[in-house]
Design a protein that fits this description.
The chain is mainly α and 221 residues long. Helices cover 66% and strands 3% of the residues. It has a two-stranded antiparallel ribbon. The mean pLDDT is 87.
């Protein structure tokens, strides 16, 4: 059972997230076309490319500076509110990491995401139930905290967070949008899964897959 995430582990997690976004970028744009301008897939592709670059091997092993740089890189990815909030998430994550830290235990990982969520909450009034990314991000972070408090390993913790995010994203089909351009459509947004929540769910699924594949390689070594 893995009990710490290293800088190399995080790169694999981030690569997993990038793979899931790229695999589903056309679907994300299709979801976005229901109430937006249909560019969510392209926007998220640029965002995860920024993140991959920051966490690639050979870069700083310091989590604090890496999260900070990742946040600013995503903020500069020119994607409107979606990249603004994603960048804010990573900037907030950097606030919870001790300088020069090169690994995180399960509780530390949960605290990092909790700090990221808190930063996003300071930027938006949206809450779960408003058909936004918060419908996936909030339950994912809450799941991370609960699993970490229960003494579970990193891999199990990320799997539960991914499941919570996916369930939250799927549930947005039954909600009415209250923020962004979609709010002008009112009840017409019901029946459409939110692209922001879906993007977050895909990223958490990728975090888990990236680490699980690494663990699988280790088990066969």
């Amino acid at each position: 059972m893995k009990d710490r995430v290293t800088r190399d582990d995080w790169f694999r997690m981030m690569t997993g997230a990038a793979v899931r976004i790229r695999e589903q970028h056309l679907w994300l744009s299709q979801l976005d076309s229901a109430a937006g301008d249909g560019d969510r897939g392209a926007t998220m592709w640029r965002a995860v490319s920024c993140l991959e670059g920051v966490f690639s091997p050979g870069k700083s092993a310091d989590f604090k500076s890496s999260f900070y740089q990742a946040g600013w890189n995503v903020l500069g990815a020119d994607g409107g509110a979606s990249t603004s909030l994603l960048g804010t998430l990573f900037l907030g994550m950097s606030d919870a990491v001790v300088a020069d830290s090169s690994s995180l235990d399960c509780a530390g990982l949960a605290n990092v995401f909790r700090a990221g969520l808190a930063a996003v909450q300071r930027q938006t009034k949206a809450k779960p139930g408003d058909q936004t990314m918060m419908d996936a991000l909030t339950p994912a972070v809450e799941s991370l905290q609960a699993a970490a408090a229960g003494g579970k390993g990193i891999e199990s913790t990320l799997e539960e967070a991914a499941n919570a995010a996916s369930a939250g994203a799927a549930a947005t089909k039954d909600l009415t949008a209250r923020y962004g351009r979609a709010r002008f459509l009112g009840e017409k947004t019901r029946g459409h899964q939110d692209p922001g929540a879906t993007s977050v769910a895909l990223m958490f699924e990728g975090f888990y897959r990236g680490l699980a594949e690494l663990e699988g390689e280790g088990n066969h070594a």
